[in-house]
Amino acid sequence: MIEFASRKVKSTLLDPRENFALKSVETEIRTDPLTKDSGRLAHLGMITAQKEDFSGWDTPEIRQICPFCPGNIETMTPRFPEDLIPEGHLRKGDATVICNISPYDQYSGLTVMSKDHLVTVEMLTEKLLKNAFQAGLEFCHLVREKDPQLPYHLIGWNYMPPSGGGLVHPHQQVIITDAPGNLYRKTIDSSRQFARQKGKNYWEALYETEQAKNERYLGRIGQGHWLVPFVPLGVLGEFMAVFPGIHTIDDMQEKTLDDLVQGLRRLFDYFESRQIYSFNMGLYFAPHREEEEMEVKDYYTLHARIIPRTYLNLMQKPPDTNMFQVALQEPFAVLAPEDLCQEVKPFFEK
Ligand SMILES: [Zn+2]
Question: What is the pLDDT of residues 116-171, one digit of tens each?
Fold first, then answer.
C-alpha cells in the first residue's frame, strides 16, 4: 500500500586518499511515500554533531539582556490584547506563553519553556516539556474560541542556535493560521489524496507497514509509534512520532501528552549520547474545517517531526543546510535511516 521508491547513482573519481585509485561513490535518491518529494542519502558519514562549550552562553551579563529571563519577561516582552488573554500572558508551571514581538502570522505565540536561561538536553525533563506543550495547547484553544475559522494549529520548536533558534533561552512557537506553510499543507493534501485512492488513513498505514517491516521502526511509547522516516529532512536524519486515533487539538488529552514527552525523553537520551544539542521540531495537528467528502480523522493523524541540527564545525560555525536544501528544496542525510534506526532503537527498548 505504501511505496518506498529509491534508486542509486554512481559517481566515479580518482581518490587522492588512496593514491588516486579509481573509485565509485554511491548516492541514493529516495522518493517520499506521501508527498512524492525527493531526498538524498549522500555525503555519507561526513557530518557528525559537534560538542559545544556552553559556558559563555549563560553569564549574568547575558541573562540581564535576555527578554525571556525572570524579571525581563514582564517588562521586555509584549502582552496579548485583553480580549484574548486578560492577564497578558498565559502560564502553566514554569512555562509562559507570550506574544511574539516579531510575529510570523496573525496568531504567533511563543512559549518560554523555563525560568532557566540555559536548558541543556539533559535538563529537558518530562515535566518541563509537558508544561510547555500544555501551555501551547491552551493558547491554541483560546484562539480557536475567538477565531474558529482558522483551521491549522502548529507547535514548532527551534532548540539552540544551530537550529535557527535566535535566543538560547528555550522557547516554542505556537502558530494558528489559515496559511499552514508548504510542508504542512502538502502533507494534508497528500494524506487526503492517499485516503481517496487507497481507502485508508496514510498515517495508520505508515506505522503498521513500518512496524511490520521493522527496518525503520523504533518502538511504541503509549499511544505514540516512533520511527525514522524513509526520506529524512535533516543531514543527521529525522525522527517521527505518529499518534493513531489522535487528530485535532480537541483529541490531545493529558495521556497523549505524557506519551509524547516520554518518547521525546528517549530520543533526547540518544541525542545526549551523540552530543546532539540542537533540533527543529513540529507538532502538526489535523485542521479544523468542514470537509466535503470525508472527515479529517479518516485521512490525517497527529504526528511530530524532530530533526537534529548541528554546525559543520565550531571554527566558522557553518550551518548544516546549504544550496541543496535552500535553493533546491532537496534534503539530504549523511546516514541511512535504516542504520540510524538500529542505533536509536535500544533507547526505545529500555
Ligand atoms: Zn534568558
Answer: 999 999 999 999 999 999 999 999 999 999 999 999 999 999 999 999 999 999 99
The domain of 262 spans 1-350
CA of 73 to the centre of ligand 1 (A): 9
CATH number at 147 reads: 3.30.428.10
Q: How far is the CA of 98 from the centre of ligand 1 (A)?
A: 14
Q: What's the gap in Å between 313 CA and the centre of ligand 1?
A: 25
Interval 84-103: pLDDT, tens: 999 999 999 999 999 999 99
Strands (E), the chain: 5-15, 21-31, 38-41, 90-92, 95-99, 107-112, 152-159, 171-177, 217-221, 224-227, 239-242, 279-284, 303-308, 332-333
64 CA to centre of ligand 1 in angstroms: 8
Q: How far is the CA of 96 from the centre of ligand 1 (A)?
A: 13
- Residue 90's CB is within 10 A of a number of other CB atoms, namely 21
Beta-bridged to residue 26, according to DSSP, are: 10
* Residues counted in the chain: 350
Number of domains present in the structure of the chain: 1
